[in-house]
Protein 1
Amino acid sequence: MHRPFLLLWSGQTLSMVGSEVSVLILPLIAVKVLAASTFQTALLTFFGSLAFLLISLPAGVVVDRVHKRRLMLVCDLARMLLIGSIPVAAVLGSVTLGQLYVVVSVVGALTVFFDIAAQSYLPLLVDRSLLADGNGKLGASASVAQLAGPSLAGALVSVMGLARTLVLDAASYALSVVSLLLIRTPEPARAPGPPGTPRGAAFRAAMAEGLRFVLRHPVLRAIVACTATSNFFITAIESIQMVYLTRTLHARPAQIGLILALGAVAGLAGGLCAGRLSARVGSARIIWLSLLVPGALYVLLPLARSGAGLALYAIGWAALSLSAVVYNTAQISYRQAICPPELLGRMNASVRWVVWGPMPLGALFGGSMGTWIGLRPSLWICALGAWAAGLLLLLSPLRGMRGH
């Protein structure tokens, strides 16, 4: 890997660490400081993922038509200011649920643009043969962030307070900006709209082109159906996870951080091994195996109990993290390899729209079910649903493919 990728990788790693601080701290602020209910806490996940449903498709057209690095810089700067507003409000004694909802909503929208641009930017920085390795490294970084973020947050909460700890996330976006500014790889000319076509019609046609490419491709169609189903149930789990751990399992913040850290270690192992697993098992076969084999352990999440029984939750969460990193590395690399370069932004956006669109609905599902039937029964439904999503891939051409 050469310098441009190393810069992107280092900046993204730091940014991911900061984001994982927010993943832990924001729900804890809602639960412990603002006394939010299960449903109110789940709304944080809902608002944070709502943009995936609303703007992913148009974001893909924008990404294909603008300078990707410049767009990523704008998104990072804006996210830095938004996250930084919460510690400022904490100093003034005015943090509210309303502010948290607004911040996670706008940060979610900016993340949609940034992530689509980043996935479309990576093939410009590395050779196609190195995509699996590059995506594996980024996946491993996400796991390192899941390990380091909660650990840092847990260590600093007692010193800085919950809200002020979010300074770490704001600072991480600033460091990501620096890394992007140091990348000098030229980008190809952006695709203009068809001549003689009204701008709105050209935009809609370009948006539809990416969606058609995804839905007409038999393997991509199966991947997005599986991922959308899995994301729905995993987001439902995440939306009630903090309430379940704190109020049902009576886990302390340090124990929660340790559980998340163990999941991160498993994800890190998956990211580091993803390239080798793909080569040994097959770049197509590993896509469905990575979901079905570890997924059987998801049932340990609702089986967990207080005290030593927290280990069951940690194992189930580790299995989910390992599965997610290996699966995403494999399916993202597959998508990047088969897609024409001029369609990368719209293809990634179309996939994001289909697979991330159910996430806000999953958050509402988790919050509603957790309120109506209880947290543990809700986790049973979600754990089994997330595992069963992998079965959809066995109905596709992937079942008979080894590589692509």
Protein 2
Amino acid sequence: MTDAHIAVGMLLILILAIFLGFPVAFTLMALGVGFGYYAYFDAGRMWRGYDRALESGADTFTLAQTWIGGFFNNRIFDLFVNQTYSVIQNDVLTAIPLFLFMGYIVERANIVDRLFSTLFSVTRRVPGSMAVAALVTCTLFATATGIVGAVVTLMGLLALPAMLKAKYDVRYATGVICAGGTLGILIPPSILLIVYAATSGISVVRLYAAAILPGFALAGFYLIYVVVRAMLQPQLAPRPTKEDVGEHTPVQLAWMMLTSFAPLAFLILAVLGAILFGLATPSEAAAIGALGGLALAAAYRALTWQRLKESVYLTARTTAMVCWLFVGSATFASVFAYLGGQQFISDFVTGLDMSPLMFLILAQIIIFILGWPLEWTEIIVIFIPIFIPLLPHFGIDPLFFGILVAINLQTAFLSPPMAMSAYYLKGVSPRHVKLADIFRGMMPYMFIVIFCMVVIYLFPGIVYMLPDLLYGGQR
């Protein structure tokens, strides 16, 4: 058995451990250090001091001490320390805790219920108006937070009871909340895109610019589906009565939009604008966003010590998870490549003589399947580095590939049996809302995601339009 075969076995053990439910970050570190000990094993280097002590006739305690020291003199421990330091000093990853804090503090600013009510009033004459309002609220709120569980849970508490009370079909109502809540991992400022940029080594700024049109295109496809289905099957979404909506003058509606929609939209646009137009780095813009989130919470009189403490705690916990994933993944990947695993997979894939389209389809199918048991963070940090070195062989731009991956990972939250959006929503739904109904409600959106990927592939200008316009072509 060659070292390359051992590396492949290392990857298979990792996949098995993940499916068995072991913590991913610590499994990566354990496998990296364990197999790395074998990969970097050098008895002459490790126990040189022990041999010298033995020759000099040292006492038993000294011999034991030098032998233990030699055991830990394996270069894998140096690699592990260096990888940890590299993650800590990575400037790209600095934006993650700041964007997370912005999201958590905005989540607690109590503006979502006001935003949903306002949008419902504004869209009251549109077929499926309450679902449309829920989708737009989800899109805006998900863009601000980027935290799928928070968006789906909060909208499940606010919008779902209102839709069920208005006699909306359960599947129709739950599907739109689950689908809308996942958009935050695609539309900037997205944590997923930052992690992908750090993994692939491409510019976060260009990636953000490339993701804007595809993200809103997917949201637009969702919106078209919601409206058209309500037109074709009006019994799914009964039109609201005057008692449901109330009477509002145009001036009142404008004031409602100004006080609920405009502040959050302005915060998002300010952050994105600062990044896209080069006024600030992603980390600096994230700091602006965090400060803006605090100001927004204070303006809505929702900034309390308890909420601030919860936001800081959740930010620290999530950031630690991402950073440890990076440390484990970097150690695992280094050992995997050192043993020849990356070259083995590269030779195998290139030997299949696939066309770029065939490779792209195969890669997206694998990512789609991995989305069933795994979180997007694990897919991006562990498996995307396996695909990235293969892209030049097939002439595929990592930027374009990253946008397809970000769209594809929407399905990780929408495809049974491990569709986390469904479980988030079920946890806050009334008892009569069944998990099977939520699954059925999400299925059309999963096909819309696939349709969006096909559209993006056929019209790649959707991805490249903004980056080329703002920064010039660098493909």
Protein 3
Amino acid sequence: MAEFATQTLAARLRGMLPPPATMTEPMPAPIPRAHGQFRFQITVKGPSARILSRTLRKLVQEAGLGEDLTAVIDVDAMSFM
């Protein structure tokens, strides 16, 4: 379920990203399972953290993930762990 949700979010995000922002394909997180939960990630890079954060928040709000899924947005991540 987590992998499918990540793929769905990525497909939507491709159409929402402002140029020249880029994103990776969805992939398992470096620690793919923690606390009984499966984890996937999409890395997004762009010139403005503010614009990217706004776009990502809008994506998550519109996605309606439900109670079983959680999306976390980590701005200026120092580590992907």
Protein 4
Amino acid sequence: MTAKFKDLALDAMDHQAMADWWCGVLGYVRREVAGTRGSPVPIVDPGGEGPLIWINPVPEPKTVKNQMHLDVWGDPEELAAAGARMVAPRGGDREWHQMADPEGNEFCVFER
């Protein structure tokens, strides 16, 4: 084995707001760590099932398609009501909806 999965990291200009947004839609909570308001924010699944996600502050907006993204189970209408944007609805041979968070980070939504 060359590597072992550890955490996910997501860049955001307003990393505090994006940490709150992702906590709200995933049911995650912030993990308290020592740091400043400009430090990355770790969010965790309180049930211990999902991975630790770091929301990292960056100075620039997202400008190109993600090379890696999250896949989630969810309701695209509820995610849109929470502030996500539909990029491409499910259809044809694609069994998922492609959406973007409020800063444009894309993710795929699979309906149960």
